[in-house]
Specification:
4 strands, single chain, globular, DER reductase, Rossmann fold, four-stranded parallel sheet, carbonyl reductase (NADPH) activity, about 200 residues, about 45% helix, L-xylulose reductase (NADPH) activity, oxidoreductase
């Protein structure tokens, strides 16, 4: 949909490959960190491999890619905006989500520290925290009414998010319309967290 965007396909857990690819792709003014994994396991069954993979992608990759991009923004002397895609799961415990909830909570705090440290360079950092989003994967995992009912019943708006709900929130946080917003989390959860 955007012909000026060139995708880079790489393993974000590989810091050297990421540094080379992202470092050569600039200059940047905007960044959206959206890569994530969700390896769902009961707390007592969490494996080291699941923990490490989740930390590498959900937290470490955001930290590293943001470092690369923010350094370029600072070197160019231009203002910028970074949006990290978090989750409602950063704020509410969910069964079998011990690692996912924890990495998303860590991402929220990382975003606040980034906002504090990058603010003097005119770089804003925020998160969007969606509920279940009806991507292709979301439809596969949450189309069963019996599985989805418990979650939807806790959402005052009575539905899951569509991709455009998240995209529009990201676009707002990247735009000048949110010029005084940094260090914030925008909940895109239909009210899940207030129920």
């Amino acid at each position: 949909q955007c012909p000026g965007i060139e995708p880079l396909c790489l393993d974000l857990a590989d810091w050297d490959a990421t540094e080379a690819a992202v470092g050569a792709a600039g200059p940047f003014e905007l960044l959206v960190n959206n890569a994530a994994v969700a390896v769902l396991q009961p707390f007592l069954e969490v494996t080291r491999a699941a923990l490490q993979r989740s930390l590498d992608v959900n937290f470490g990759a955001v930290l590293h890619v943001s470092q690369i991009v923010a350094r370029q923004m600072i070197a160019q002397g231009v203002p910028g905006a970074i949006v990290n895609v978090s989750s409602q799961a950063s704020q509410r415990a969910l069964r079998d989500h011990a690692v996912y909830c924890s990495t998303k909570s860590a991402l929220d705090m990382l975003s606040k520290v980034m906002a504090m440290e990058l603010g003097p360079h005119k770089i804003r950092v925020n998160t969007v925290n969606p509920t279940v989003v009806m991507t292709d994967m979301g439809r596969i995992n949450w189309s069963d009414p019996q599985k989805s009912a418990a979650m939807i019943n806790r959402i005052p708006l009575g539905k899951f998010a569509e991709v455009d709900d998240v995209v529009n929130s990201i676009l707002f946080l990247l735009s000048d319309k949110s010029a005084m917003t940094t260090g914030s989390s925008l909940m895109v959860d239909g009210g899940f967290l207030v129920s």
